Structure formats: C-alpha cells, structure tokens
Amino acid sequence: MADPVVINPITRLEGHGKITIFLDGKGEVSRAYFQVPELRGFENFLVGRQAEDAPQITSRICGVCPTAHHTAASKALDDLFKVDPPPAAKMIREMLYSVFMLEDHALHLFFLGGPDFVVGPTAPKAERNVLGVIQKAGLEIGKRVIAMRKELRGILTELGGKTIHPVFGLPGGVAKAVTPEMQTRFKETATRALEFAQFCEKLFEDVVLENPAYVKMIMSDAYTHRTHYMGLVDSQLHENFYDGQLRVVNPTGAEVARFPAQQYLDYIAEHSEPWTYVKFPFLKKIGWKGFVDGEDSGVYSVAPLARLNACSGMATPRASWLYEKYFETLGGKPVHHTLANHWARVIEIVYAAERLQELAHDPGIVDPDIRTLPTETPKEGIGVVEAPRGVLIHHYTSDERGVLTSANLIVATQHNAARIAMSVDKAARSMIHKGVVDDGILNQVEMAFRAYDPCHACATHSLPGHMPLLLQIHGPDGRVVREIRQDG
Amino acid sequence: MRKPEFEPRIVAFVCNWCTYIAADAAGVARSRYASNVRLIRTMCSGRVDPQFVLTAFEKGADGVLLCGCHPRDCHYSSGNYKTLRRYTLLKKMLSQMGFEEGRLRLEWISASEAEKFRRVVEDMTEQVRRLGPLDLDGGD
Amino acid sequence: MAGKPKVAFYWCASCGGCEEAVVDLAEGVLDVVAAVDIVFWPVALDFKVTDVEALPDGGITVSFINGAVRLSEQEDMVRLLRRKSKYVIAFGSCSHLGGIPGLANLWDRRSIFEWYYHKAPSVADGGSQEPRERVEVPEGTLELPAFWDVVKSLDQVIDVDYYLPGCPPTPKLIGNAVTALLKGELPPKGAVLAGTRALCHECPLNETKPEKLLIKELKRVHLTKVDPEKCLLAQGVLCLGPVTRGGCEALCVKGAMPCTGCFGPTDEVRDQGAKGISYLASILDFDDEADIRRAMEAVPDPVGTFYRYALPRSILMRSRGVKAHG
Question: What is the pTM of this model?
C-alpha cells in the first residue's frame, strides 16, 4: 500500500480542492487523485420552484459566471414554454453574453492564469498574482484593465439590473429593452472593447509567444492529452457562445457527433467515483473506459481549446485570422496541449469584442419588442450555452403550472473533470521522482489544471478561479510524508 | 415509534369577540373537552401574524388552531377575511415544509357556538394525536 | 504599521459573487488596501491559516465572512476567526440569512445524493456508485469531508456583530461599512448595515404606487409584459419591495423585474417568509375562499417566493437545524 501525498488548500479547514498523491516504494508516483470535496444540491432544490425563477436561482451556482447560468436557464425556459424570443431579445441576450465572456476571460488572463506567464511560472509565489502582473507590465495597464472591466460590467448592470446575478432573462425574451440612447453609448464601449481585446492579443503575443521557453512548455508532453473535444457551433460550423449545435471531434479532429442540446442524453452520460463529489461526463456512444485518452476513450474536453478544436473557424475577421495562426503555430488541428487554452482564450476575447461590436451596431437591437409571452402548457426544456469554461446544459421538466418537477445540470468544469484528473496525475508523474517533492512542483501541477480555468463553484460548489489547494503526499506505508498548502 | 400516551399540545388563537366567548361559555356549561388546548386571546383573528403561528410550532405546539368570527360578522368588518387569506397561503407553505395536513386549522366559531368549539377541540386533538408529535428535529 | 486596522476576508459555502462584489469596488479596492492591513484573504492573497492562528485573540479588527455554513471545516474556521476578531461582519445573503443554497434545507443528504448520483437522467452505470467519506483505492485511502443535512446562516454558528445584506452587497454599501469601521462610527451591535426602511422608499417607481394597494389579479412575471415605468405591484406582479429592507437602490426594479427580497426583512420582522405571507394576504382583494385560492395560484411556490434567501433563518428551520447539529 502506498503512502499518499495530499495537496489541499486551506483545506483541512476548507475543502475546496484536494490532490492526493501516492508514492510507491521507489518514491515514484503510483497515482495522483484530484478530489473535489463539495456539493450543493441545486438540482434538488430547484424542484418545487416556479420555472420562471430558475435563471435567478441557478445564477447562484456561480458568482463568477452567473450570466452563463442565467442565460442557459433562460434558453431552457424558452424550450420549456415553447416560446421563441423576438429578434431584439436574442440580440440583447447575445450582446450581454459577449460582454460577459469578454470581461470574464479578461479576468482570467490578468488575475488567474496570466500571472504564471507574465510573471513567470517559477517566480516567487508572492509575485505570482495580479499585483505582480501590474508591476511587470506597468500600472497603466492595471488601470486600463480595471477601467475596461468596470465599463463592460456597467452594461450588464444597466440591462440586467445587477452585474452579479442579473435579472434580464425570461422565457421568451428579456426584461429590458435597449433604447437608442443606450445604443449610442454601447457602440462607444464596443469600440473601446475591441481596442482592449487587441491589446490583450498583443500582450499575450509579446509575453508568451515571443518566448521560446513558454512555447516549448505549452507543447511539452507533461501538459498534453489526446482526447475528444466538444463545442457549440453555428450552421457554418463557426464557434458560437450563445447558440447552435454541439459538435464533437475525436483526437484526430474528425467529427464524430453533431446534435442539438435537446438530444444531449443520447450523447452524454455521467460516471461517478466514490472518492470525489464531482461527476464525470463521457461520450455515451463510446462509453466510460476510465481516465485514459485516445479515440477509444469516452473522455472529452470543453472550454477555449476544445471550442477551437471543435469548430471549423471563427465568425469574425480578426478572430478568424488568429484562429489560422493558432493552429499553424501549434502544429495543426486539433491541438492537444492543455496550456494552449490560454491562447485560445485570448482569441475568444477578440471574438467576443468583435461580436459585441456587431450587435451593438445592429439597428434591430433597439426594437422595443423584446418579449414573446408563453401560451403553451410547459413540460420539458433544455438549454445550452458556452460558459467561459465550456458547454453548459440546463434541463428542466415542469408540471402544467410551470412548477419544476426535475432539474439536471451539466456544468462546464464537470465536462472537463476527467481530463483535469488525468492532467493532474500526469503532471505529478512527470514532476515527482525518487520521492523528491518541492514547492515549485506544486505550481507546475497546479498549472496543469489552472489552464482549464476550472470553476468548482460551478462543478459542485466551492470557490471559483484561483483555487486553494492541499497537496498531500503519502509514502508507501500510507503515512503522509509531505503536505503542501496553498490558501488561495 | 410514537408513544401511546402521547398528549398533543395545541395552541388556539381565539378572537375576543366570538370564539373566546364560546370557549368561556363551554367552560361555564361544564362541557367536557380535551384539555390539550392552550388558548391565546387576541382582539381579532386578523391580529394573528403568521409569525405567531410559526413561533407556536417552534415552542413545542403539535397543532395550531385559528378561530375567528364567521364571514361578514367580524367586529372590525374584515379581519377574518385577512385571516382566511393568510391561512390559505400559510397552509400551502407549511405543506411544502413537510407539515402534515391537520396541524394547522381554521374555524369560524361565534360567541353562541360553545358546542362547536367543544367539538372542534375534541376533533383536532384526536387528529393531531394520530399524527403524533411534531418532529421539528427532522433531517436525519 | 501600528494603527492600521487588520482585516480578514473569508468565504464559506458561497458562489464567489461576494468576492466579485469586492473586486467591483474597482479602483476603490486600492483605497481600501491602502487604509487597512489585510491579514487573511484566501481567494486573493497568500496567507495561511497558521498565520491567523498566530495572531492574538482579538488581534484582527474585523473579519468579513460570506457564505452559509455547511461543513465542519467551515465551522472550525469561522470559530477561529470569531476568536481572533474584534468584529465579525456577516457579508451577503448566505451569511446573513442562509441564502439561496439554504433552500437545500428542504432536502436532506440522502435525497440529494439519491437524485444526483443515482436518479438524474444523465447518470450512467445504473447509478451504482456515490462518494463516500472514506474510500479504499488500490494505492491507499482517500477521504472526503462529510456532507451535512443542514445549511446554516453565520449567526447560527457564531456571534455576529454586523450584517451586510444582499446577494451580493452593493459596492456602495461595502464602501460605507469600511468607512464606518475606519472612523469607528459604529452602530449598535447586531445592526444590518443598509437601509432601515422598506425598499419602496428608495424605488424610482414609488410615485406610481397606489395609495392603497389592492390587487384583483396576480400575474407571474413571465406571463406579463412589464411596463418599466410603473410600480410592478400596481401591474399585479408580486414585488417584495414593501417587505424588503432598502439599501440596494432598487437594482432589480431598474432592470424591470420585481424585488425578490435578497436584503432580507426590515428590523422589526423576525421571519421573512411569514412576513411575506402576511403582506400578500393584505393586498389581495378577495374575501371568498374560492377566489382567494384562484388568485393564489399565481404563487405556486410560497417557500421559494418568500424564503428565497432566508430559509435557514426561518423560525421553523432554525429549530430543526440547531437541534440536529448544534
């Protein structure tokens, strides 16, 4: 019996993320387990609630991506009540969604994942944070990021009532219309947002792509898994955040499935393990073959890297150009390098800004007709969006009064759970030898999953973003030989 | 398992102008009725805030009886209608929270209906006795 | 560094929205950081629990704690912070009242597991497995924290000095609270650091609210087109503004949607759900039982409507929670 090493956050006291590593008699890793230690039961307590309250209730799954849950729930309600929102309502939803994706991705770039690159993966921990980024890149940049985020979040507040936990979504539309006066301001914001997106693009290029060491790290085997990928695409197979069909490609890049979210149960199933509260979705037609990659495994991945792999291009010009460059630089499609998620996220920042620009300029967005009132008896509804962290599916059934009778949610980070577990195991195996574990290893193991921008508030419930971790290493006799904590 | 000797505790909120007088009359007439009821006199059934009802349950009541004047007979003209609306909603909410039907009851009992008061108390006591003690300790 | 107040931020069972609300202070964050000495903030800064343990009792001026309490670990942590802090502020609806995750108190651990790991339509393998607190794997033993039956508000676990309400609290109220703390201008213990009157008093639509509000027809919000310039109650949409504490400046109403009560009730109310019922009963303009029943069909979920953010603090749920796990 091996003796585990555990990476826990604060966690004996907290329980947000925990990695347990077992070493064999030679001090080599026999297996690293990534455990998610919490669950909240939203699916249960949605039962009995009025369906129209679901967008607001489910947004409380996550305060970082409330807009994703809010929008997925609103779309599930469109389906439940069989109502098609008027064109302006769809545009408003997608515009708010683009705003949200842009500011959320920017948050990750500057506050969460970015510091590893801008400050450096082996830089002292005290500097590996947003303050370190500001120090290295300059205070002006810090101020610009804060100001841009504030301006973007202002749009969410104006149309959504609140920025965090907005209230705009209703079955058949949105609560508040865009006035011509608002449109004038939103156009200006969109222009600044596009400049900001290009600034992010440039920053990433200068800091990461111009640095051969980083490119080498991105492409290294320790951070590579050949899995299936899933993402939402429009009718031209272009990536889309708000609507479309789910497309799955295999590790060679060939399409193996394309389906509307309403058919998700034919394609996706969930596997449970006794050692973690998170469930592991897999491709139902292939089956659960364990934590392994390859064409014969049902494990798939979502989020920026997966989205780029699963689509055949971007719908906007600048993003389209970056998409080509991405695959050219990284050796063709699909890209299997987990750390390439960061670059993909930057491309999506550009796409979100371009899409925001298009929608803010659309004359149709100021149409005051923003609601289609339900007239049919509600029964069952399924909605999907691409959350920043990947495919998000809400599925409800209701009685004839529109009171929910069941809820099933498959959440972004959950789709990635199996691949994240594999990434952590692989990173631990490549970093730890002969029983030698140092603090630097912790960050490199962490980088393996930080690239996914995992949101365990979403996946089960614990704190999103920069996760506190507890790493426990157990020796062959089962005793803890080393414990490393990171409180956030 | 319920103990056979379980004696339910019932809190009855009674209106000063009707049911309280009926209860008093029942006592004066020496009618026999279950001693499980504790009376709380209010000036009107409309005075009974739903918080009073929840507090009664919190403090150990197994059942709560609300009594007021018959419709159109309210001393303050509309207090009992308000009671009816509150009761209707409160009952729905308590059922969502796992309370059995029968732990909360509304009855219109006028000053002259001492016999009805006796009958309601007897009936509710038996009903709550069958339900057993209110287990707020629930969960696991 | 003497004189700078020491501040800690901590989260329990929460969604992270309260932390985002702090980030939404935007450039204001920098002012706060300059004025105080942050000794603990797991989500943003790298301090350890041991650092907190090393502080003298009462050594932290104020701890802001968000999230409800569901795990023993959370309980240990808030007890530690209570001991080390002069003031504890319950930050946000979950900490204040139990919050939306508190609706889980309608269910227990078993029923939650039953659905999530066994019955949900996407569950594979016939739902044969579920997580356990201790499990043997080929390499050794793995452990998970226990999952409780009951969600609690912060003051059901430790003594709380002040409350910052809201899901999440607004940056303005956060700023006001920090300023009051820095100046030492503190209200009496137990105060909720927001408005003292009902939300209607600060609602921009209050002028369009009828003097005496009586409703013949309640309308569920998805079945009606709301006029954003007119009091929602006057349009028959159940807005909880009259029974909800003010302080948010009517954000949801400005979004053309009704208030759902996240700031909790005003000072004189003990139970938000019971108060909500009382309020609705007072505005429905019907005297006949059949009419009342029909009108109330528009509120098929009183618990989720009136206790949306406060179920753990309900008079009934409190008895239940404390007895089971106190």
Answer: 0.93
